[in-house]
């Protein structure tokens, strides 16, 4: 055993024990202190370096904790690691320019279908409930809560579903999660691994992509003006079908009552069959009553209901929920209840208060008027171009589909718009088989564009698609 | 075509159009209006019922929207649905008593390993940042953000990892998610479906359960006092190994530097091999420096680093993150970037501010002292019982393991404690193979029990396990 000739610097911020620890660690990793060799005793080393035994002990303890050194009772300290253990920096740091996307953009108007109106969000109310909730008296909310979500929130959701969607579902059947993606991932675990899924095509592409990232088969199912067709379902024979019955995404069709009955009957025929009803924007219907949910017609307990606050409130809140039929709920409680809730408890209580105090209802009523006005404004602006551009699905929701018959293909339509600083979304992006329709169709999420900017945005868009027509011209000349 | 003899009640809140709509819908679903039959024209029905044409139109439009009725141009309105379509309430509402668990509890002290100290959370600071963030000027935060998480937060995490964990990782390699479960579910999608996983046994049981809910094979891997053993890994030959190197859960062992090197070398041998490092509570080390992360030694880019704010801040916040090595990051960006972030953007910005302003560091320093005191108090209280009860892993983290050699089996230990109002957790619950150790071991998460309650809680616990011993007796008599 040699003494350790460590040079300690007392004029630095680095504690002496840490200098000693680093010195010994380097001696080991660089091979100068070999595996099995004995270190000086604490007392001897302390004397030699003129430091306290405590300092040596702290350094030795750290080396022991990290496995470099072992302490054998009544024998002393021994090196337990061999050389060539140098710490190196992780090799996976990509240079900034490689992966950090350029955020420069010349887009002035974005018609993204996931966007909502952000200017009329009740910040003051939300802030008030946040302030109430983030309080020492609620300190128990800091711990993990119910895996299905806070009971208070589920109760509010249950009330809402009863009054707004005609559904009687108990809070016990509701599972709250951080977005439809997270909920779907859990849901998929409740089905067998050879379950075959059917999705509307065109449809909500996220669902298809999630399903496709699992090893299951996914069948595209045709949609016409009554919604999803049931005969192809009977032929293709999937186990679980994903639908948007109240407002088909993207066409806006309502699944007809006949199709609903057929679909429910199809599902009732076999135990393994289920229907996933995504009721993503049913809050926004501008004429008449809201369309009843498929779930409210479900006698056989075959409908899994998916709801979300992404459209009705804000998408970045990441709060969605699903209502499970009894057999699936039992399976969930047996197999998946160990998953922790994926939503902050504080956020859940903020939302529960917001709903309980009537702010959610007020917000919906207010937004319904704002969105209706936006929609009317667009219809009005499109009207002079109606020979070329027609609107599909203008009764409800936060988006419409434009069918554009000007001789351009879908790509051209999108490119022309982008060049004019307007971002629109091609329908084929929402088709599993990338089907191109004729005439080509464009999805226009109108919710996120401020009301006062709509005239310029829509007029600019239409002008790049439809150069001045005789009819327009004559109007201008009048 | 008959006229519709609908009785309209003008003395109710229900709008006339809705009464008419309900009447016609019932006529259809109850079979009195048959499929294909023609409805009266709007004008005729309006005259007959002495209401405005507008009212009839609204009712008809709703029936059309729901698919009960079809409007044929120049022909009129026709019933499109057949009878027996009655709406029924969903059948899946379980009576409250059946599924709603009894929440009655006689537990006074809960030593759950996931609990943290909730009394010293900086509510005022958090509320301040929440107030700053929930503001109209941040209205763009309401829309969906970066799928990997807000850049501002990832930058703070990257800084933290550099200073606290010796890791150089760029914000681009970090993915923020709503808890380790959500992140793991994404991560698993990046591996092949026949990937075999290895987990520490005993270990963090949640991981094993998540892995087991996927169809992949999961091998339990033995742990000794240097951490996970590498030879069995080489034999069992899994592809991906899950470890807690800085502080093994639940034993508290630090993976020795030799084992670290072996493990990293094992992973480097094959492209498909990866190590998942769960660094769940490395913030809380009460003597010496923190243990370097395995990731900081990772030359070959084989370590996936998992971090969380569940221990360092609060578990109910649901913010965790992972750092992906380059090949996995590329795969993530290619295949999974369409998943939306699972964490509220507002929450991400609150946390980013909390970190940026130094509050996170202050909180950690404060909590380190509080937890250290709690740990010291427990050691002190256990000391008189040391012949029967010994503490394993007392250097760090928020839990310890008690090895209890009083002749009772694990179940008895837990039951006796529960009967005394004290909830403790058996080690076998954290073993994939439900292995029972001898002497039996109990996990004690001490973070959530207030400091002033520890003496009573621990003394009560020890007294039900170890009836008064001669030594205690002699002390009492003194």
Protein described:
The structure is a homodimer of 478-residue chains. Chain A has 478 residues and is α/β, with parallel strands linked by helices. Helices cover 38% and strands 14% of the residues of chain A. In chain A, the strands form four sheets. An eight-stranded mixed β-sheet of chain A has the order 5-12-11-10-9-6-7-8. In chain A, strands 13-14-17-16 form a four-stranded antiparallel β-sheet, with helices on one face. The longest helix of chain A has 24 residues, at 359-382. Chain A is elongated. The model of chain A is unreliable at 85-103 and 474-478 (pLDDT under 50). At the A-B interface, helix 1, helix 3, helix 5, helix 7 and helix 8 of A face helix 1, helix 3, helix 5, helix 7 and helix 8 of B.
Please write out the topology.
Two copies of one chain form a homodimer.
Chain A: H1 16-29, E1 38-39, H2 42-49, H3 53-65, E2 69-72, E3 76-79, H4 96-99, E4 109-110, H5 123-133, H6 151-165, E5 174-177, H7 180-190, E6 197-201, H8 205-213, E7 218-224, E8 227-228, H9 230-236, E9 240-243, H10 257-268, E10 274-278, E11 303-308, E12 320-323, H11 326-335, H12 345-356, H13 359-382, E13 389-392, E14 399-404, H14 410-419, E15 422-423, E16 425-426, E17 441-445, H15 454-465, H16 470-477
Parallel strand pairs in A: 4-15, 6-7, 6-9, 9-10, 10-11
Antiparallel strand pairs in A: 1-3, 2-3, 5-12, 7-8, 11-12, 13-14, 14-17, 16-17
């Amino acid at each position: 055993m040699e003494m350790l000739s460590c040079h300690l610097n007392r004029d630095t911020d680095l504690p002496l024990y840490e200098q000693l620890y680093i010195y010994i660690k380097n001696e080991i990793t660089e091979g100068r202190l070999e595996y099995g060799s004995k270190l000086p005793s604490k007392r001897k080393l302390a004397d030699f370096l003129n430091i306290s035994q405590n300092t040596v002990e702290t350094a030795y303890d750290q080396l022991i904790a990290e496995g470099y050194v072992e302490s054998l009772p009544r024998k002393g300290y021994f090196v337990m690691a061999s050389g060539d253990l140098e710490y190196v920096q992780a090799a996976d740091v990509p240079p900034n320019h490689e992966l950090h996307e350029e955020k420069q953009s010349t887009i002035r108007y974005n018609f993204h279908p996931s966007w909502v109106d952000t200017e009329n969000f009740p910040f003051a109310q939300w802030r008030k409930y946040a302030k109430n909730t983030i309080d020492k008296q609620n300190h128990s909310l800091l711990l993990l809560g119910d895996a299905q979500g806070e009971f208070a929130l589920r109760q509010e959701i249950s009330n809402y579903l009863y009054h707004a969607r005609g559904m009687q579902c108990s809070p016990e059947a509701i599972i709250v999660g951080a977005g439809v993606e997270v909920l779907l991932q859990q849901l998929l675990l409740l089905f067998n691994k050879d379950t075959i899924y059917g999705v509307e095509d065109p449809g909500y592409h996220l669902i298809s992509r999630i399903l496709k990232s699992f090893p299951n088969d996914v069948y595209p199912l045709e949609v016409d003006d009554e919604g999803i067709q049931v005969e192809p379902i009977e032929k293709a024979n999937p186990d679980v079908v994903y639908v948007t019955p109240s407002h088909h995404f993207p066409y806006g069709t309502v699944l007809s009552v006949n199709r609903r009955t057929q679909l429910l009957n199809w599902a009732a025929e076999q135990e393994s069959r289920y229907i996933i009803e995504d009721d993503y924007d049913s809050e926004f219907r501008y004429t008449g009553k809201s369309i009843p949910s498929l779930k409210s017609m479900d006698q056989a307990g075959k409908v899994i209901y998916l709801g979300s606050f992404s459209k009705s409130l804000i998408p970045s809140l990441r709060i969605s929920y699903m209502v499970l039929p009894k057999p699936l709920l039992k399976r969930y409680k047996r197999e998946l209840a160990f998953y922790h809730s994926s939503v902050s408890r504080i956020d859940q209580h903020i939302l529960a208060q917001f709903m309980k105090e009537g702010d959610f209802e007020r917000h919906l009523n207010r937004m319904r008027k704002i969105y209706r006005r936006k929609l009317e404004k667009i219809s009005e602006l499109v009207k002079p171009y109606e020979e070329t551009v027609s609107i599909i699905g203008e009764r409800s929701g936060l988006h419409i589909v434009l069918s554009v018959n000007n001789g351009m293909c879908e790509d051209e339509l999108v490119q022309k718009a982008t060049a004019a600083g307007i971002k629109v979304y091609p329908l084929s992006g929402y088709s599993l088989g990338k089907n191109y329709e004729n005439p080509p169709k464009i999805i226009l999420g109108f919710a996120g564009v401020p009301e006062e900017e709509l005239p310029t945005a829509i007029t600019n868009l239409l002008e790049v698609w439809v150069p001045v027509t005789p009819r327009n011209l004559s109007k201008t000349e009048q």
